[in-house]
Write a structure and sequence with these properties.
Radius of gyration: 21 Å
Number of helices: 11
Number of strands: 7
Number of domains: 2
Order of helices and strands: HHEHEHEEEEEHHHHHHH
Largest sheet: 7 strands, mixed
Shape: elongated
Amino acid sequence: MTVNSYVTNLANSAILRDAEKRSIQRSISTIQSRLNSYFGGEVAQHFLFGSYTRGTILPRSMDQRSDIDYMVVFNDSNFQPQTYLNKLNRFVNTYYSSSEISQSNPTIVLSLNHIKFELVPAISTWLSGLKIPAKASAFDGWIETDPNDFNQTLVNANQANGNMIKPMVRLVKYWNAKNNYIFESYELEKILTEKSYWHVGGMFSNGQLKDYFLEAMESLELNWSSAQYKKDALNRAHQLVREVKYYQQRNMESEAEKKIRKLIPSTISSLSLLGSY
């Protein structure tokens, strides 16, 4: 097997399978129906956003923190964030009292057997548009947001690079999850998507997925104040990337594959795909 076939199969295994997708969709439909029933006219709108809508969410077998982001926009904008968080907390306790429920500012986290939901309260103002609770202290506790503005950026980058960006993002997110979440997931996606890959792909080249993945991994950086375990994990990743490239330059593909497997080991769910080669 080549390095490229290995990462391609692993990226394919990082896509939600039909059974998991159907189960998640049923839960989404149920939450939507219950939100309408519970809040009625108190809520202006509610909708999905985040990695699920972008197609970059990982199966739980590859990332135990995989979750569905869901925004609930309230009509009355006169209260502070905790009031709306309390409303969502009462909602989930009404319908999901046997599930694990917690507040992780600025969200209410609902953990079901097959997926986790993060319910985000929001308000809408004429001047500022949508606002969500600030993670840190702020003047009025709110920050402006455009929850799906990044989606089109990802679509554009993916199309400009031969549909390599989304599978590459899933691979790097998988590495991140395997290494105790060195980077925050959304910020990692932004870094990877907004980076230029002109010398490995795009209109001037025919880069393979392994080229995008190695380039992305090589470009990741941490600041000096980062925890030592994060620095160690990233340094190890950079060293493995150098070794993969070293062996590939010398046409030692089997040795290069051994190194890429150390960087991103195959999962149980991907063994059937990988075993066909």
